[in-house]
Write a structure and sequence with these properties.
Blueprint (H helix, E strand, L loop, with lengths): L4 E4 L5 H12 L3 E6 L2 H15 L4 E5 L5 H15 L4 E4 L17 H23 L3 E6 L22 H22 L5 E7 L6 H8 L3 H10 L3 H13 L10 E3 L2 E3 L8 H19 L1
Parallel strand pairs: 1-2, 1-4, 2-3, 4-5, 5-6, 6-7
Antiparallel strand pairs: 7-8
Helix pairs in contact: 1-2, 1-8, 3-4, 4-5, 5-9
Length: about 280
């Protein structure tokens, strides 16, 4: 991995940071995004210290802003010029209705629109350095989601788990359409559920369930460091070389929800997103 460059969105904490540490230990140049310069500098120092690898950098980027993403993509290409693995890890799970700078409900803005735009802006760099990989962090909760084309950006009748689930389902549909479009390019795209992690949103979800489901969650709960192993596996393991358009539960390929295989929905969603971004940015 010593000649490889890996980009991770949202690696100042959680599984993003643990993934950055693990990949840096393998010798790769690791670049990540941070919401602020302060959090970025702090995470960078920690990743370098724990990995022993000085090839770590970050860019300050607000992933809820199309303009910020465009600027970041240009700055990244100018500074690094190559990209071997893109990990779209950053995500949110809002408790109340919030909107991005582009007037998109925040879960959809960060969890889906941001990876869509960033990936497309960096796609040529990935093609230039093929074989290369794209890993999109989804969630098992995608199975509770449904693509509502009348409510992709508006957050109408906001219910936090419905919006979160829709955003993670949208990410899988994007992954499948992208993988199909990239056929023959030697660039792979896969989505994954990193595991049930001991986070605030997981605890809140558990509080809404019955005793049996709570017991299941506790039994399956893993640490952020363990969850990061699945991301590292999809990013660098030779075992998944050439595999594309799939959904993984950590290191295991699984069948996702029925709707996530509907390519007519995937096409419609792609076209809607592309048009929305073009109109908004211009």
């Amino acid at each position: 991995m010593k000649d490889k460059t890996i980009l991770i969105t949202g690696a100042t904490s959680g599984i993003g940071k643990e993934t950055a540490i693990a990949l840096a230990k393998l010798g790769a140049a690791v670049v990540f995004t941070a919401r602020s310069k302060e959090s970025g500098e702090s995470a960078k120092e920690e990743i370098i210290k724990l990995s022993g690898n000085g090839k770590v950098g970050f860019f300050e980027c607000d992933l809820s802003s199309f303009e910020a993403i465009k600027s970041f993509a240009e700055n990244f290409k100018n500074k690094y010029g190559r990209l071997d693995v893109l990990i779209n890890n950053a995500g949110v799970g809002e408790t109340t209705l919030k909107f991005s700078k582009d007037n998109i409900e925040m879960d959809m803005a960060v969890n889906y629109f941001a990876p869509f735009l960033l990936t497309n802006l960096l796609l040529q760099v990935l093609k230039n350095n093929a074989p290369s990989r794209i890993v999109n962090v989804s969630s098992m909760l995608h199975a509770e989601g449904h693509i509502d084309f009348g409510n992709l950006t508006e957050g109408k009748n906001f219910e936090r788990y419905e919006m979160y689930a829709q955003s993670k389902l949208a990410l899988i549909l994007f992954t499948r359409k992208l993988a199909r479009d990239l056929s023959g390019s030697n660039v792979t795209a896969n989505a994954m559920h990193p595991g049930i992690i001991n986070t605030k949103i997981t605890k809140e979800l558990m509080n809404k369930t019955n005793v049996i489901v709570k017991a299941f969650f506790r039994l399956k709960m893993i640490s952020e460091k363990e969850a990061a192993q699945g991301l590292v596996y999809l990013a660098v393991s030779p075992e998944v070389e050439g595999i594309t358009g799939e959904y993984f539960d950590r290191k295991t390929k699984k069948r996702s929800s029925d709707e996530s295989y509907d390519m007519a929905i995937a096409e419609k969603l792609w076209n809607f997103t592309e048009k929305f971004i073009r109109v908004t940015v211009i």
